[in-house]
Amino acid sequence: MSDFQLNNEDHEALEKFTKFFLVKAAQIIVQSRLGEKKTTKSKPVYSGNEWFHLSIKDIPEVTVNAKKCLGDAQHLLIDPPHCPFCVEISLRTPDCDTITLETWCISFDDSVSDPSQRVRFNIYNRMSIVLRSLLACTRATPTYQLSRKQSADKYIICYKMYSGEPIVSHLGEHYSKKTCGSIVTPIGRFVLNVAYRTRLTMSSPQIENGISGITQFGIDIKNDHFSLDRNQNSAEEDNDAQLPSESNSSVPKSSPIEVMKRRHTSCDSVSSSHGTPDKVYYSKLRAAFATPGTTAYPSNVGSYSRANDSDLPFVLMMQQQENNHQQQQQHSMEQEHQQEQQHTKNHYYMSGDSENETAPDDFILVEVKPFFGKSDSTDDLALFIRSCQQPPMLESFIVEPSLGETINQLNEELRIFESKVEEFDQLVSTLDTNHKASLCTTE
Amino acid sequence: MNARSQTFEFAIEGRQIAEVISCMFHTILFHRCVGKYNTKGSDNYSVGTLGYTDIDCDYTDFTYIVTTSQELQQTISDKINQFQDKLRLSGLNSSGQITLEFYQKKKSGWMFKPEEIPWEIWTIKIEQMQLSSENERQFMREKLSDVLAERVFQITEIINKPDYVPKPPHLSELDLVFDTSYTDIQPYLFKINFSDTPTIANHVRTILKEAFNTSL
């Protein structure tokens, strides 16, 4: 314990600085967990009401809570028994399940001191530096990214302040502890620490009730998310937020890739051997355009492999087109024939003959059964699918230029491109300038 | 007096270079700035207030703090972009380093330029990586956010050590310690240098150049 005694004036100054230091620290911590980006202005001229030369706007409720917490403590932080001041951040689900994420703690240790430090200059400036370190460190813990994604229907972030030793037992087994800064005074040392959870696990009564679900915060919700059977936890001096509680799941901190894959394989009917999203999507795309009875519609869709080019949908459509082209030609011929007949039949109809309703026997009907639409072939969806299955032939397949014509065409194109080299260079430099400008505005 | 130095190394993609260096340098500069001094008389002055702004990274899931000053952000980003462009033009797997050096000036006679004495040097070594798949990119993106978080805590730990920082001089000699060219803030005098491939020859060349300049 330090034997050095501050004079009354310095002691009063240190008390006042400490009080505002603790309130500002609480403001920084709580404001960093509101879920939004902050910006404050630098002011060249001191306005008279900004502590520590930092532009930190105060939320009145936080100041009131902090002062109440400090007032309820029997002694000041700098006086024995030096009760630490703690701010606890937790996450709450709509079911009122709570998980503590981190505990920030400002403590005072009288075993380390430096009598040469001047209260009104050195310590005040050191407090300013530590508050800036706190601003930087609050963005560096995992809770910051979680707080940016909070919303009323997923989860919200709560805070709690108390005087006393920091409670770290509910941060999980592998919590991490970091020091943000320290200030050595003539009578002791302030230390600002944070202990934060690294594993988002919950061991709650929900496990015994058989409720299970794997949740990555903000992405999936548990199975009984909308169940009426809820646990009501007591709310202390908390500020809101609910959060989909996670029961009995150990979700590693860095697993968005696994979650993506799980979502894809669980959402699709394709076998789970197709892990990569592009394969799954491709199989689905293929199945959508397949018709029964063709080579494009195998019984086992899950065995499709992208490497098999002969099964490409486009090639399939080309094959179908060849078949349908013949059918179409026949169909168009039949249609012309039918029109002639219709004309004569119309003539007959006009004269009152009602025997014209039946189609000719040699008319081939290609029935399209859309996979989720009406089975009526006049339905828009069926017409659309038919037009996709029978696209018009590309011009390049009808008109095939000779090798000489192709080379001439290429030479012509090259000449045009060479003449416009300067324009292309200008475009590239414009893109580069825009890219740099966008980077500058980002920063 | 020997300048204390700290080196951070990163192996990242080309497009992440600017953000990583910006995060490191701005975190450091936020601690190495004071409010703008406004002199009221010969010995009276007031100190302005520093603002801060959250900046989200585009190529990794991380947010860092910058001092709210358009001029400072422009100065830093110009230098970082020059370094990034140089590095990316050098080749796909090139490496380089960029330094943020804080110095103070010492007058050495009326005929000579003030001597520049560094008191803190932060070096960032970048090794450019080429990733081939989206899965690798996603993995690197997450890993980089963890690394940046670790570096931010390291920076705050280093800055909070009771090491030498130039004392504010007399008002007439502010320019020897602070960069007073900014209108809204007042950082300690600093300069940013970079090279694409740190070699002994480059290092010796730099030392000789500085010695030659300071002796004039």
TrEMBL record, chain A:
Give any Gene Ontology cellular component: Atg1/ULK1 kinase complex
Q: Does the keyword Magnesium apply?
A: no
The protein's location, in the record's own words, is: Preautophagosomal structure
Q: Where is the composition biased (Basic and acidic residues)?
A: 333-343
| Domain of life of the source | Eukaryota
GO BP terms, alphabetized: mitophagy; piecemeal microautophagy of the nucleus; protein localization to phagophore assembly site
Under which name does UniProt file this protein?
Autophagy-related protein 13
**Residue numbers spanned by region Disordered:** 231-276, 321-344
What is the originating organism of this protein? Adineta steineri
Alphabetic keyword roster = Autophagy
In which residue ranges is the amino acid composition biased (Low complexity)? 244-256, 321-332
Give the classification, highest ranks: Eukaryota, Metazoa, Spiralia, Gnathifera, Rotifera
**One Pfam family named in its UniProt record:** ATG13
Q: What family does this chain come from, according to its entry?
A: Belongs to the ATG13 family. Metazoan subfamily.
Annotated InterPro entries:
ATG13, Atg13_N, HORMA_dom_sf
Query: Where would I find the Autophagy-related protein 13 N-terminal domain in this sequence?
Result: 97-199
From TrEMBL, chain B:
A Gene Ontology molecular function term for this protein is: protein kinase binding
Give GO BP annotations, semicolon-separated. autophagosome assembly
Which InterPro entries does this chain map to?
ATG101 (IPR012445)
- Superkingdom of source: Eukaryota
Q: Which GO terms describe its cellular component?
A: Atg1/ULK1 kinase complex; phagophore assembly site
A single Pfam family, by name?
ATG101
Keywords of this entry: Autophagy
Keyword Membrane in the entry? The reply is: no
Q: Any keyword Oxidoreductase?
A: no
Return the similarity comment. Belongs to the ATG101 family.
UniProt name for this protein: Autophagy-related protein 101
